[in-house]
Amino acid sequence: MADIQLSPQLFQDIHQAVERLHPNADTGIVLQYLAAVSGYLLGSERNMSPADKEAYLTELCNFAERVYRDVQGQQQRPAAPPAGDAFGYWEPPKKD
User: Which of 7, 52, 80, 94 has a CB 3.0–4.6 Å from the CB of 48, allowing a cystine?
Assistant: First the structure.
């Protein structure tokens, strides 16, 4: 999978895009839109075989689960002290 960079601005932009179609959308509705868009784009892809689409769908689901588990793990750790102006990009763990 490609390297991606997640940011609060990206999350806000996506939420605002969904709210234009579905006013007052909560996180669950935003997630449903994201899942539907992913399924639609992959299902509509004409340059992939059905087997490749199935494999990619599995990879996407596994990727989403890894991100979820990483975020959950970060939330369960004790909060780190403020680091001034420090920032960074999240990257999925490297495969062994």
Answer: 52
